[in-house]
Design goal:
Blueprint lengths: L2 H43 L14 H10 L13 H14 L1
Helix pairs in contact: 1-3, 2-3
C-alpha cells in the first residue's frame, strides 16, 4: 500500500471513529447525568422544594456554576460530586430540561 493510500485510510478511519464517539459520548453523558440528577437533584427539583427545571433557561456554564457553588437556597455540590458528575448532570439538565 502506498504512503498516500495509508494516509487517506488513516484519515477515513479517524473520521469514522470521531463520528461514532460523538453519539455515544452524548448518550453516555446524558445517561450518567440522568443518574446523578435522580440521585441528588430530583428530591428537590421534582417535588416543588426547588425550581422546576423543565423550563430551564440557563446556559450550560451557568448550570455548572450553580451545581458547583450553589446559591439562592441551593446547596453547593463541590465537595459531594466529582467534577465529571457535575459536568454530566449539568449537560443532562441543559439538554433535556
Amino acid at each position: 500500500m502506498s504512503y498516500i493510500m495509508k494516509k487517506l485510510l488513516g484519515i477515513v478511519v479517524l473520521g469514522l471513529l470521531i463520528g461514532c464517539s460523538d453519539d455515544s459520548s452524548t448518550s453516555n453523558k446524558i445517561s450518567l447525568g440522568s443518574e446523578v440528577y435522580y440521585n441528588f437533584c430530583s428530591s428537590c427539583h421534582d417535588t416543588g422544594m426547588g425550581p422546576n427545571l423543565d423550563f430551564n433557561t440557563l446556559k450550560f456554564s451557568e448550570i455548572v456554576y450553580k451545581v458547583t457553588y450553589g446559591g439562592g437556597g441551593m446547596p453547593s455540590f463541590k465537595n459531594i460530586l466529582t467534577e465529571n458528575e457535575i459536568e454530566t448532570v449539568a449537560y443532562y439538565i441543559f439538554k433535556t430540561k
